[in-house]
Structures are given as C-alpha cells and as structure tokens.
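stuck on whats below:

***
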Amino acid sequence: MNDQQLLRYSRHILLDDIGIEGQQKILAAHVLLIGAGGLGSPAAFYLASAGVGTLTLIDHDTVELTNLQRQILHTTERIGQAKALSAQKSLAQINPDIRIVPLVERADAARLDALVQQADVVLDCSDNFATRHAVNQACVRHAVPLVSGAALQFDGQISVFDTRTAESPCYACLFPPEQDLEETHCATMGVFSPLVGIIGSMQAAEALKLIMGVGTSLAGRLQMLDGRSMEWSSIKVKQNPACAVCHPPSI
C-alpha cells in the first residue's frame, strides 16, 4: 500500500482483526454484485469505500424515478441511464483507485457461470427467484461463497451460503427450486426504504469478513428483520442431503 492508501484505510488498519494484512486482502479481492438497485446500492458503496480491488456490477435495468426512494447509488439527473453505469459514476467518486466493471446485461445462467468463477465472493442483490437460483447454482459449481439478501415491505433477510465447507447448505437447500413460491415485487407491494440499506450494508459486511477470514459468517443461519419492531430473529439452515444443486444425483 502507498501512503495515500494507508491514510484512506487507516480506520480499518487500526482494527486488530484487520490490520494491514486484512486490508491488503480487500485490495486484492474481486467481488461480483448482482443487481445495482435497493440492496446493491449500499452494498456497493461500502465495498467500494472499503477498497475492494475489483467490483463487477451486473444489472440490465435503467434508473427510474420510483427507484430514487431507496436506490441511493442513483440521482435524479441519471433517470433513463443504465443502473450499472450510474453506479460506476457514483462509486468512482467515492474511491477512484478501485476497478469497477459495469455490465449492462441480464444475469442469465451461462453468463453467471463465466462471471462467478472469476470472483472471490458473490453478492446476490437481485429481486427474483430465477436469478437467485441461477446465481446459487454457479456459486455451488465453482465453490464461491454467496451472500444473499432480500427485502420487501418491512421484512428483510440475509444469509451466507458457503459450500467451500462440506456441511454448509446452499440457497436451494433453503428455497428448493421446485417449490412453488409466490413471486412478489416492491413495484406492487412496496418496500420501506431504510430496510434495503440495513440488509445491503450487512451483505457488504459479510462479504468483507469472508474476504479477510474475520469472525464468523452467517453460513448456516438465516437472519430475519421485522422493520416495524426492529426485532431480529434467526433460524438455523441445514444442508439438505436431497438437494439437487449441492447434492446432485450421481449418474
């Protein structure tokens, strides 16, 4: 690290659990972030400010007026612009020293398979089950830890799925792809704006912990927040031996 980096990241370096070694791991890391919206905004801000060396953002959507209530990466002047490109502009102002790779495209299964294997950690900040399952499958296939978050109305949840550990469950163990889950979106149900900030910030925290090997991750636990009462609840998530994703049937 040069003198400017030592100064920029000094408050991390002062922490015994991080220090220079931990900060260097952050600087060398590559994070893939799926979705530059409500969850992706705070997550990306904190990952960029923390100094993640390469941050790849994938989002096919454009900025709309209704996004600005919660998607803090974007501004009124950027309505109509691609979210990934708008995010790049905001993050470059926070930290011009990192590499930001904006991808204006849909995160389909084939593309995710190529992108995930290049990353050290993946953050799923998407808003639909099809993308979440495709991200999970790619992460299991390449043994890349996945930090998954969701927020709707006043309810938020977050967990880590790290199949580098033999006993760790994957996203499909908790939400089987064959399960008929009702798809709901904030466009029709609404979402409390600070809630995505809370969950997205936690996703960034879990990603940084995984990169540095600090503390205990949320692997095997699902944290759920009731935004009305600001009460957290937690459930244990166990690996499903019949899971078709992390325990595919042998041929």
Notes: The chain has one domain: 3-236. The first strand starts at residue 30 and ends at 34. The beta strands are 30-34, 54-58, 99-103, 121-124, 146-152, 155-161, 221-226, 231-236. The chain is about 35% helix and 20% strand.
